[in-house]
Request: fold
Amino acid sequence: MQPLNDWLTQVKTDVPELKDFIIEVESFFSDTGFNVNQHEKALETTLKAFKDEVKESFKTEDDVEDKKNNN
Amino acid sequence: MLKIKKITIENFRGVKTPFEIDFTKSGDSSVAIYGRNGTGKSSIVDAWEWINNDFKIAHLNREGVSQKDYPHNACNGLNCSVQLHLQSTSPDTLKITYNSSKPTTPTIVGDYALFKSYSYYPNYLRYADLRDFVYKTKKEKYEYIARFFGLEAYLKSQSELQAYIKKLELKINQEQTGFDKITEEIENIIGHQSITETEIVNYINTLATKHGIAIIKQFKECKQILNKLKKQVEENPKTKELVEWKSFQLKLNQFYLVSKLKTEAEELEEIFEELKKDEANFTKLILSTLYKIGTEIVSQLEDKTICPLCDNKFEGDLLEHVKEKHKSLDALNKKKTDFEKKQAVLLKAFNSLSKKIAIIQSEPGANVLVAMEDLFNDLEIIGLSVPEFTEVLTKTVTEIEVIKLSTQPFIDKIDNLVENEASHKKNVTDKIAELESDATRKTLADDYHNLKQLITDHFNYLVSEKVLSHLKTTKINFDTLFNILTLFIQNKIQVTFGSISANVIDYFNVLETANPHIKNPEIKLKMGKDKAVELEIEFVSTRVTPAFKFLSESQVNSFGLSIFLAAVRHFNSKFKFIILDDIVSSFDAFKRPKLIDLINTRFNDFQILILTHDDVFFTELSRHLSKWNRIKFTGWNYTTGPVYKVAKNYHEQILDAIAEDDAETAGQKLGKYLEWILSEINENMESEIRYTKDNNYTLSELFPAAKKQFEKKLKSGTKVHCVVKLITDLEKSSSFRNFVVHYKNVTVPYTSIEIKEVYDKWLSIEKLIYCISCKKFVKLDRTTSGDFVRCNEGHINLLDSSYFT
Reply:
């Protein structure tokens, strides 16, 4: 039986629309299965980053200037 | 092709001194071991599983037996090993020795990787495996079969993905609930159902205009308006106070619901006190399962006074004693579980309370602090005390000396908070109503409060929108991947089953020839179900699903065994070796010969190790597969392991008795042998036989019937068939006539020389009518072109002219 990761590589070719997603998650697959805990942690990090992203988008030039002055 | 020459087991499970299974000793390379239960047979399969299954024994693991318990009790973990002598490999030995300092990693001498590359799929089958197969659910059968077909990693990923997708779904639902709440709040504030940055900016600008503040173009400039509005609020102390109260009202509403905890704390203490008195029995809790199994086992024992564990006699009612022990430990276990549950409930309440207190204490207005001083003082005491008492909720009973929780002042304060919820809320509402009596003040406070809320909500809205979108996309992708994986596994199962199905059907049909209405089994994947297979069968020319509708337990076992045998043949194509442990126990008695027939006709090219406690099956095996090496376990000894001897077949027993000039034993053995052989020959030849009321046929009936039928069927004009000639010669010999009449009556003696003469003459007949290839006697084969006397595979055709003289 082919290793699981070889199968994922095959899916990338067979289903191109999943290629980017598989590249994102293939490191969580091994011959012992899918590592849920690791993926959960990575997902939490991604979700937290959205908060920073929105915070960043709300910054005005004045905010940036204030930060500079404070430093 | 890998072949086993010898397996040597030492100090493993029930085997103490080195026990050797030699596959080269006899003419065939297979071995049968007979032994009653408890003589150490299963230790052999355990040893084989240990070296094949990642140094674990699954059924022992399930029963809580750890790898540390694999060595024989008396060896202290030393010299516990399984050694294989192999053919056609270099090196030709592989020794795996238990490592007491690291039981999961044994010491290996030899090329283990090479061995595993041959012995890839499980080639051992226990009675329990077959029995379990019958009772497995559709889902479990799917997992069992998928594992058999080498899809374990795929199957594991499938299960993990399925669980993870459900988790993601839950997360999405939670996030969606939060998102909907924020959306509703924003819609209420701005008075629109479509939330866009333009709508929000328009609303903010309306507020700005109302309070004489310059408008903005982008949302990110909203803080300018908020700051200016804040300034207007702070310029008016009453408005500032109103804003403080409104902000506090929001926090207070979020703080409640809080539950009373005094009763919970008292119950926890009460159970703790009871458990503490019984603490000495905690170490015995692991025995609860043992006593539970004990009640089932003892009730099945013939002698209910001997303990099955220590073999000592018990004075009194052993069953009642075991039941009582189980009852008391079970009650203690339930109490302990109850205590742990109550600990968890309180811990959760404490953690939740700590978070809520932190929120309500943050940024309180000066006016609120003064007016609600008592409440804030209580919250401070609770906030400081909770962490101190959280520790006791994470410890075990043994670790805790005493619990004094219910009498703590902070517990009373929590209960007071709950009791005063309505009163606190009313105070706040009244204060707000009083301050809102001035309409201008109310408008300014509302607008400031709404704008502040809108800014927070809009931020959370945008974050939540992104989170939701990401989670949904992730879930959709995992769904797609899961579906592809499921299809892949199902397809693999179907394709693999397709490639072995011919053999499965063939083996099943051999085992079930007695029931011609049931045949041609198939494995069907349940469509529309993610993980399920159904067994299908042909019943009176109709396909039936599930097969259980018409299959008995024994027939389902035939199905399971057929799948196992076909899978081993398919997957371990370069290592034709199988261990069958007591599987005959799961079959109806009439199926024993069918199983032998299956082994004989379909697994001639395999090395087989059969273990059985069924002496009838062992005798049948000895008769039909006379060249197998046979070992009899006659008992078990703690200091050595199985007590055994080599079991001899009829030929060996007859020749041994002749060699020892023991004519009586030789005659009795030969007589029994001939009766058995002639019964089979007469059945094959469809001979007519004189009926006996007691259905007990001896040589006096069997031999003439066979002779008459051979004479009738092996005719060619005036020529004489050599088989008929040899049978006639035998019949005419005085030794044979004397033997036939007197072999059961030892008062009339015969000599060893006479027995040897009869035996030799018979062997010369047997040589002509027994096919060494299909291992069967010839039979009468009636066809449209006439009758034949030949073997199944056509190696012998007795009507061939070469047999006539």
Notes: The mean pLDDT of chain A is 86. Residues 52 and 58 of chain A are 10 Å apart (CA to CA). Chain A has four helices and two strands.
